[in-house]
């Protein structure tokens, strides 16, 4: 476990978590748009 922590710096983990969170929010937003669009037709 120590080896993985040394291989990846803390800043990279933070950036990775932010990218994953933003990606999921973006995907949820697009899904919501498609769902609302389908209901309006």
Automatic annotation (TrEMBL):
Report TM segments.
12-34
List the keywords (alphabetical): Membrane, Transmembrane, Transmembrane helix
The source's superkingdom equals Bacteria
Q: Name one Pfam family in it.
A: DUF6126
Statement: the UniProt record of this protein carries the keyword Membrane: yes
Q: Does the keyword Membrane apply?
A: yes
Q: List the protein's name.
A: DUF6126 family protein
Species this protein is from: Streptomyces vastus
């Amino acid at each position: 476990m120590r080896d993985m922590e040394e291989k990846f710096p803390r800043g990279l983990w933070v950036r990775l978590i932010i990218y994953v969170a933003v990606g999921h929010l973006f995907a949820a937003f697009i899904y919501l748009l498609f769902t609302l669009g389908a209901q309006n037709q």
